[in-house]
Amino acid sequence: MATVPPEFHGESGSVAQAYDQLHGVLESTRTSLDETATALHKAVTLYAENDRAGGDKLNTLIEDHGMPKPELTP
Cα 28 to the chain's mean position, in Å? Predict the structure, then answer.
């Protein structure tokens, strides 16, 4: 088994301090990414629901009135 360098020993080791700082930054980044993912999921779900409702409404209009025919202007 490899020995642990003295820089890692205790809370006062230089590598241990840098690791603690990095760990804090990475944990904060993870939290931000999790919150962003949650917000994006909500936005995508809402968009999909509205798009589905719009498509259903369009299909109902086509069934009731037929396929729209654009008016051509000379």
Answer: 16
Asked whether the beta carbons of 63 and 56 are under 8 A apart, the reply is no
Type of residue numbered 61: L
The answer to whether the beta carbons of residues 7 and 13 sit under 8 Å apart is: yes
Distances from the Cα of 60 to the Cα of 11, 21, 65, angstroms: 68, 59, 8
Classify residue 67 as exposed, middle or buried by CB count within 10 Å of its CB (0-12, 13-18, 19+): exposed
Say what the pLDDT of residue 1 is: 42
List phi, psi (to 5°) of 41: -60, -45
For the entire predicted model, the pTM comes to: 0.61
